[in-house]
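Our collaborator T.R. sent over the components below with a one-line note: 'Predict the complex.' Nothing else. No constraints on interfaces, no templates requested, no preferences about which chain binds where. So this is a plain run: every listed entity goes in together, and whatever single assembly comes back becomes the starting point for the next discussion.
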Amino acid sequence: MPQPPRPPARSAIGSLVLIAVIVGAAAAAFAYTAGLFSPGRLTPDKIVDALTPPGVDVAGHRRNHAKGICFTGLFESNGAGSALSQAQVFTRGQYPVLGRFNLATPNPNAADATVRVRGLGLLISTPDGQEWRMAMIDPPIFPVSTPQAFYQLLLASGSKDPNAMKEFAGAHPEIGAFGAWAGSAPWFGSYAEERFNSLDSFIFTDGSGTRHAVRWSLLPAAQAVPVSPEDLAKRGPDFLEQEITERVRGAPQHWTLVLTEANPGDPTADPSKAWPEDRRTVEAGTLSVQQIEAEADGPCRDINFDPAVLPTGITTSDDPFPAARSSAYAKSYDLRTAEAADYPRTTTGAKP
Amino acid sequence: MNSVLQRFTAPQRLLHWLMAVCILAMLFIGVGMVSTVTPKYLTLVSIHKPLGIAILVLALIRLALRLRYGAPPLPADMPAPMKLAARLSHFAFYVLMVALPLIGWGMLSAASYPVVLFGGVHLPAIVPQSDSLHTLLWNAHASLALLFFALVLLHLAAALFHAFIRRDGVFEAMASVSTSDGAAPAE
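Returned assembly:
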């Protein structure tokens, strides 16, 4: 009679212990992977927690860049970007866009004049079914070199220790360039006058397979008129949203998309380091903002402007920020969609 | 124990072990990716999505094989509660293998994320954009995935219990390597 193979006899107790050890090891490996034994690991939850200001009701809103207003429009590609990337968005043509002007603050009710950094989220769709999402800001460089340093910056700026920021700046001297910009750059009275920058570097792959390290900017067509922050403070808490709504109602507003290619050796991994001014640039087309809509019931509300959503022909580079931002933005999205009831879908509900 | 050893058919055994590797990888990738902000996050996410769809396709094939070929009978001397637990756990595995990828796909659809498999290959949205649906599906995806892992541990413990302690041929019904036909005797 054929018999199943029999292992050497072992006591039942010994076998049970062996089974417990095997199953326990599998469970421990799972817990380790989930970070349960790594309290020092930087997680999206930690970043989002550190962003959330105490005493501010953020429920239903993005955990950073919380105040914003939606727009729709077109990206008109002139075809020149094809020299750098095979993405369909760079072939000549018009592609629909969805976007969001915003303020870099976790407070959804911040007064517009109190926020130094302004941003723009953009989603360009192409007929091949692909999307290019991006989230840009107006400073020319990012404050810090790494996501870990960004987290330390959040902790330091939220700390009660009066020396926390000084100690942070000592350990992360790269923040000096950002501080100099924040202290000296002009303020403007309109989103339409802002230049928005990717800051992060991405790899563009052209039709022949050649890779190019690229950063990009949107340059405003509108004449930028500096206004002192004191004068802006007199304009009311939502002046930027009111101004862009009026301006776009009068005429579409335009920006030129400029792609900048790195030279070999340029710091692609560090968005706190600017590239020299003489780098090759390509004007790839024009963004037209045609209609403004309030965020509460607008088309950008439930869109995550995740900078790692990229079309074929663009990928992330050795810059660690897009991955960290993608991870933290997803956490923010999961939180705020679960809290949607706290942010009513009516325009009147948007501004308590 | 005088009956001949009966095993799952060779295609069923092959799919079981292939999917065991895929599903374990999937569960580890899932908990790993949501707990890191390093560039590994994007790599893990880019594996998680196509691997989930691959598991969905394999699970449907496996379900068809199970309906066609069935499963070897459990040993006659196995206590009734153990038999019930075995049958319920198999049922739960089939439900989870099909449902988890679909819930993940639906969750991405409800958030209006593109569902990228690889390169330019995308899947269409299977539910409309909706914040409440996204939240429902996200919570279901996370809790059912943990349940899935708990079930895997239970399955592993039960398989080893059959192999080491009961030695009733249940483990060999899936574990044996020989490619001979399912109803044939071993050796």
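Summary for T.R.: Chain B touches chain A through 46 residues (CB under 8 Å).
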